[in-house]
Design goal:
Largest sheet: 7 strands, mixed
Structural class: alpha/beta
Shape: globular
Helix content: 10-25%
Order of helices and strands: EEHHEHEHEEHEEEEHEE
Number of helices: 6
Distance between the termini: 61 Å
Length: 203
């Protein structure tokens, strides 16, 4: 009998809910939907929570100035291997080019960074040029918007390995326009390739 494949990593909340983490897609090259969205954004571009760097690498491949930031050293290493620029830094740390970025990207649920979308978007506003744009990936309509405490869990030979608890949030497509408006953005919601996004411009 063939061995069952190990379950993939998940994000577990203190309320017991579990969200699968699609690591394969996260580490792959940017897909057609992502490349088309990037192509519509003005440069220079800041990819917040860039992970392995597929978005910032795709922007660089288009010949556009782009920088990724992530708190994980492993994300920095993978992004560098893709030939893209990256800093190991939080979005809430001092960053180069504050007030001059023309685009800030928050894909893969990164609107949840820090557990407060309002605080995160207020910080994004500080980073953007007065004519800047933010691109946010959100949960589908009806998924609900929540703030939670979560941790990453992975299956290994010795059992389930888990990281520390940290604050996270989710915003769905029903709520994102109001969330962006509170931070001073006028926005539209888009559905492409079965994924939901909002594009906000400073008002």
């Amino acid at each position: 009998m063939a061995a069952r494949p190990k379950p993939g990593p998940v994000l577990r909340s203190t309320d017991g809910s579990v969200t699968p983490l699609h690591v394969g897609a996260w580490r792959a090259e940017a897909d057609e939907v992502e490349r088309s969205l990037i192509d519509e954004l003005p440069a220079p571009l800041l990819d917040v929570g860039c992970g392995p760097g597929r978005i910032v690498a795709a922007a660089a491949a288009q010949g556009r100035p782009a920088l990724g930031i992530d708190t994980a050293p492993s994300a920095r290493d993978e992004t560098v291997r893709r030939g893209a620029a990256v800093l190991t830094r939080s979005v809430f740390d001092p960053l180069p080019g504050e007030g001059r970025w023309r685009s800030v990207v928050l894909l893969d649920g990164n609107i949840g960074i820090g557990g407060s979308p309002n605080a995160l978007l207020a910080r994004v506003r500080e980073l953007l040029h007065r004519c800047g744009v933010v691109l946010v990936e959100v949960a589908p309509p009806g998924a609900g918007s929540v703030a939670a405490t979560v941790r990453v869990e992975r299956h290994a030979r010795a059992g389930v390995q888990h990281g520390p608890w940290f604050p996270w949030a989710r915003v769905d497509a029903d709520d994102i326009e109001a969330t962006l408006a509170r931070a001073g953005f006028e926005s539209i919601t888009l559905c492409r390739g079965g994924r939901w996004f909002a594009r906000g411009e400073l008002s």
